[in-house]
Amino acid sequence: MARIKRIRSLLIFVLGAVVGAFTGASWERPVISAQQSPQASPASMQADVDHLKDLVPPHSHPMVEAGMFAANLWFAGEKKNWPLAGYFLNETRNRIRWEVHLNPGPKGADGKPVDMQSIFDGIDNGSITKARKAIEAKDSKEFADEYKNLLRDCYSCHKAALRPYLRPMVPVSSAGAQPILNLDPSANWPE
What we know:
Elements: H1 2-26, H2 42-55, H3 61-78, H4 82-102, H5 116-137, H6 140-160
């Protein structure tokens, strides 16, 4: 009896293998090889690179977001929503770090690259850390002072990167889209 079961199992196995082999052989599968693919020409590769460049946002993109988060940081602190203020401070910091990563050495006034990482490190260890401590202490007066110091530090970076016309300001309205940049060409704060 056991011998019959083993023979039956062996026959089922062999039959399955034969059916599988015939089925696999009857399927048409495309054969792809490197030799069959057309070689890309330098012109088509350049067109692909140009297309990819068109898809990448400009280097200023992270700073647009940093401005939005910095404006929201001000209003969160003003309303004493300290957890939200902490969130917006972190997001502002992260967008500035992203900008430094994308554009680590723009040309300065002397034509030489500006070390943006060093500038960011100073801001990160200075006004960002002090603003964080004011948020953690839930100190409204200290927060307002450190927020303004952060804007001053941001402006010093803008000047180093030859963008003195990007003059941050304390936002005045949380209703709708409020720019964090002072659009007045005769503005003199921060210096």
